[in-house]
Amino acid sequence: MKKRWLLDHNLPKQLADFLKKTGVDCNWTSAEGWEKLSNGELVRAAIAADYECLLTNDRQFANSAGKALTQNPAFSVVEITLTQAPKQEFLKNFETAWNSKKITPEASRVIKWPN
């Protein structure tokens, strides 16, 4: 089964292009019309739309979406811990980190990546 990931609105949309080249089917929250949902609502909407995980830069996401994760054990949240940078620099840093250590979502967990 092909991986299906959702990018939170705080990540550059161009990240989807990079991930698609690696075989990950992904989209971003604004393309789904979900940019204004609360974190818990976003997790529930992503699960209903058959996403496997959500990638975010939001350090507080785990706290606010935790209940939705416990109720939906197949879903995962990946907190991207790369330093904030201008878009092109962030994308380059993401690709470098990806080439060193690909993201491996863990069901019903919030994981920090790349560390």
Summarize the SSE layout with pairings:
Blueprint: E1 4-7, H1 14-21, E2 25-28, H2 29-32, H3 39-48, E3 53-56, H4 61-71, E4 76-80, H5 87-100, E5 110-113
Parallel strand pairs: 1-2, 1-3, 3-4, 4-5
Helix pairs in contact: 3-4
Can you tag this structure with a few keywords?
115 residues; alpha/beta; Rossmann fold; 5 strands
Structure commentary:
There is one protein chain. The protein is α/β, with parallel strands linked by helices. The chain has a single domain (4-113), classed as Rossmann fold, CATH 3.40.50. The protein has five helices and five strands. The protein has helices at 14-21, 29-32, 39-48, 61-71, 87-100, and strands at 4-7, 25-28, 53-56, 76-80, 110-113. The protein has a five-stranded parallel sheet with strand order 2-1-3-4-5, with helices on both faces. The longest helix is centred in the last third of the chain and has 14 residues, at 87-100. The mean pLDDT is 89.
